[in-house]
């Protein structure tokens, strides 16, 4: 089968609620992510003009290729929210750069989301998926922004309908579909199935990009994804959490170039840089609370990491975190 290995395929940071905030997106951009996506944002909350939601849609200086992801199930509400984001007329949200796309979440498996009929629950109703894409497309076309969609393989093993849902989205104006090769019921195990991504790639016209997602943790995984699916871009989620360098590693592997992984000191220092930006954005109390788990990803596998993790869990201040990560004076 045709594959895109060697081509300059885009490497995309996957949207991850609680993680892909502006500081983390900037970090991934610095280490080679070509594109980013915000955390998912409630279309309903936006339409109610909720100010806590507005900050999620902030695009900082340097995050030049960022899509904003929305979730919901009512085509009218989704269209209205998309128009607010595309026009920039959403009080409280500030863009250093306009969004590159509005992305629709059709993959979130979390109970609270699917019981409201949002996220991957939408895949149970391909016609509704098409209506939502049509509404968002209509709303943002005047601003020249494309609609992209993120789906899973289907709801469960008896309903693997990614091809049908992707076609409904493409027929209604989606320019790109990212496919995570698991069903909703699989959540995050067993491993992601590339054959469903290949089926979507084969079913859609070449004018629609198909992005492969699921379990990409290395250059080899990326090559396998490209070879097995023929996809047009690769989206990386969990591996990036403590390893934003994954994008440089993958890019080097695709170019058959040498990659030098970061030293432990660089890893700790980069974690601290991220924490400092988070604290700057969110204040010390909330920033430190959120940073404990996020720093833990960076120290995975380091000597003394379990002791450091315990200390991180007790950290109260930015100074505590600096001491634990031993980045004083670096
Ligand atoms: C903590 C966490 C939060 C996530 N939040 C979102 C989200 O807001 N929107 C979305 O479309 N997918 C979300 N996902 C799914 C990821 O984008 C991605 O599809 C999934 O993790 C599989 O890719 P990976 O194996 O590279 O991690 C989330 C995943 C994780 C682990």
Q: Give the CATH class of the largest domain.
A: Alpha Beta
DSSP summary: helix tally: 14
| Total beta-strand segments | 9
Q: What is the beta-strand fraction?
A: 5-15%
Order of helices and strands: EHEEHHEHEHHEHEHEHEHHHHH
Overall geometric form:
globular
CATH superfamily of the largest domain: Aldolase class I
Roughly what is the average pLDDT, rounded to an integer? 95
Q: Which regions have little confidence, pLDDT < 50, spanning 5+ residues?
A: none
Could you name the CATH topology of the largest domain?
A: TIM Barrel
The chain-level structural class is: alpha/beta
Can you walk through the features of this model?
With 330 residues, the protein is an alpha/beta fold. The protein has 14 helices and 9 strands. It has helices spanning 22-30, 43-47, 51-54, 75-87, 111-114, 126-140, 162-171, 194-203, 219-229, 246-254, 264-282, 284-299, 305-314, 318-324; strands spanning 11-13, 36-37, 41-42, 66-71, 101-106, 147-154, 174-183, 209-213, 233-236. Strands 1, 2, 3, 4, 5, 6, 7, 8 and 9 form a 9-stranded parallel sheet that branches. Helix 6 packs parallel to helix 7, helix 7 (162-171) runs parallel beside helix 8 (194-203) and helix 9 (219-229) packs across helix 10. The mean pLDDT is 95. The structure holds flavin mononucleotide (FMN).
């Amino acid at each position: 089968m045709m594959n895109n290995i060697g081509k300059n395929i885009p490497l995309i940071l996957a949207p991850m609620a609680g993680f892909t905030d502006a500081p983390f997106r900037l970090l991934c951009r610095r280490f080679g992510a070509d594109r980013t996506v915000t955390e998912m944002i409630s279309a309903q909350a936006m339409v109610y003009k909720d100010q806590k939601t507005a900050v999620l849609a902030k695009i900082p200086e340097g995050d030049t290729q960022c899509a904003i992801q929305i979730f919901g199930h009512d085509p009218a509400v989704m269209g209205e929210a998309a128009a607010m984001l595309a026009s920039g007329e959403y009080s409280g949200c500030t863009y250093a750069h306009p969004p590159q796309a509005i992305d629709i979440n059709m993959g979130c498996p979390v109970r609270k989301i699917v019981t409201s009929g949002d996220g991957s629950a939408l895949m149970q109703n391909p016609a509704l998926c098409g209506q939502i894409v049509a509404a968002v497309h209509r709303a943002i076309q005047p601003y020249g922004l494309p609609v992209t969609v993120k789906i899973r393989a289907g709801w469960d093993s008896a309903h693997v309908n990614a091809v049908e849902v992707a076609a409904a989205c493409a027929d209604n104006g989606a320019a790109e579909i990212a496919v995570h090769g698991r069903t909703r019921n699989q959540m995050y195990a067993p491993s992601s199935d590339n054959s469903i991504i290949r089926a979507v790639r084969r079913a859609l016209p070449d004018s629609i990009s198909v992005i492969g997602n699921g379990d990409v943790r290395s250059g080899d995984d990326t090559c396998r994804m490209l070879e097995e699916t023929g996809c047009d871009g690769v989206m990386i989620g969990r591996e990036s959490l403590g390893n934003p360098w994954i994008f440089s590693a993958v890019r080097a592997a695709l170019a058959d170039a040498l990659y030098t992984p970061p030293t432990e000191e660089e890893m700790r220092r980069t974690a601290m840089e991220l924490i400092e930006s988070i604290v700057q954005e969110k204040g010390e109390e909330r920033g430190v609370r959120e940073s404990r788990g996020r720093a833990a990803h960076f120290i995975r596998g380091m000597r003394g990491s379990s002791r450091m993790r315990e200390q991180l869990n007790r950290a109260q201040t930015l100074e505590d975190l600096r001491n634990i990560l031993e980045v004083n004076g670096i």
